[in-house]
């Protein structure tokens, strides 16, 4: 299940990590009530990085990336995204959200709007893009994720894989500088996982900064420049994929990898 | 079977089977009858008993309905005609009361020569509501819809045309204030000012302004006081005004109840629970009696307006709970996706959350509207002449003393037509908003 390796070779010419900081998280802590979900998280993401975050369920990996666009609020520490610090100031939050794209496990397309309307909604209402221009942008990205012919259908008429690709296109229409993926393939049938991963690989090839919570270790090996392993709300280990998979250092990581790659 | 079965009969399908229609015996009216009415001894028996009951009920009511007498001046004249033509004691309705008094049932004591005004108002209402109900109508027609309340108000009550104009100016004032302030002082300040400014204007300036304008250019039609309103006209005015005003208020209350802001949340919860927890009739008595004690002496606060306000608040509390159900039914992911795209609260609500939540709530909302419309008959208890009140008044006259069924059948039928249309419209709307399911 976890090793849907893609046969294609990956064009790495645009995959360059610069030394410009995209996201800086320092000493970040979060609690749900009395439960300490995230503990002393320190993470610096440079522009152009492709980071895969993995870990057992309940380890806080989804919560971590949901904190980056403030779908969850952190209680201590700092998160700086593109030079803007996340605070309770609504202006900052809206600014960051419009620059950080996010894809969810369950796609979360708007079922009452057509695919095209799903994609043009935020550009029109948040960026004030004229409708025609927004539609052109939307069609451009729908072509990119290879479903322009579905533009006038409703989400309920599409397969899961197609819906997730629309969700990616919808985020791209806002021209985000960072993309967050929260288990984008976990709700998909095996046949559909590949089409979504292909779309994500293309995005990586263009140099997008990506943070991706996923169990697709094949994707991590091929695309990521850094793999982070989390457990009990902490970053336990992080390394380049090669080293991470070949020679994990912590026992917890070894156990996790043996369990998901073991059969 | 042996264990080697799987090896001995390996199988590869070479062609796929195309889809084919079901066998012919599984369709048609005869099959439907047999399956639904005559599928077994018990069902045959039940079908026959039901048919007998239906026949019996119709046999007793239909002659009364269709032998009805349409031309008579009083109930006793009706009876004489019946005895002469059909024989003593036969069953026949006296529909003549409707012919004699339909104007009263429709308009109450509204001046007879001015009946064209409420009729024209109804036509304007139907034209104004069409673009709201049916998306096929041109969007520009909504401007007419926005203006129509003022025109209808003027037609119904009459008086100076400047009064509705100066009230309407309040809305323009609010809108202008919002447009001017929103870029300068931020949305919240702009909304508060835009809400307060018109209220202050209405309280202090609208009346004098209307009088000034009237003195400058006199433009008025005959004034009809609220006491003269009655019959279905009254039910329609209270019902329609209540329906139209309670929907936005109910939606705001539902959002308020869901809000994280402590004060707004508690105010909404308190309002909903208090209004909903007390019978409508108590609120109507409050409107008719108690408010007079609280208002400064000498204020003439129209009784009908008070009733409309009470009915609106009452229905809004119910709508709020219905809409809250719709909001709760939406998956959390919809809120998150809207947030993640950078939509602010009001845009997320308007574009993403409410269209879906309201669609889910349509049956409940229409249910509340139908209830509200029928509850307008309760105003009879505070001395307004709704159709029930008028039927009492008609019975109090010498000619029609003792007539019950005919009036109630007529009133019931008119209410049924209205409520049934609302119900059909809600089904149409649900079907229209149906999207592909996953």
UniProtKB/TrEMBL annotation, chain B:
The chain crosses the membrane at residues 37-58, 114-134, 188-204, 232-255, 267-291, 303-323, 360-383, 403-425. SUPFAM superfamilies: MetI-like (SSF161098). Residues 232-426 form the ABC transmembrane type-1 domain. GO terms for molecular function: transmembrane transporter activity. GO terms for cellular component: ATP-binding cassette (ABC) transporter complex. InterPro entries: AA_ABC_transptr_permease_3TM, ArtM/GltK/GlnP/TcyL/YhdX-like, MetI-like, MetI-like_sf. It is found in: Cell inner membrane; Cell membrane. It comes from the Bacteria. It is a multi-pass membrane protein. Keywords: Cell membrane, Membrane, Transmembrane, Transmembrane helix, Transport. GO terms for biological process: amino acid transport. Belongs to the binding-protein-dependent transport system permease family. HisMQ subfamily. PANTHER family: INNER MEMBRANE AMINO-ACID ABC TRANSPORTER PERMEASE PROTEIN YHDY (PTHR30614:SF41), MEMBRANE COMPONENT OF AMINO ACID ABC TRANSPORTER (PTHR30614). This is Glutamate transport membrane-spanning protein.
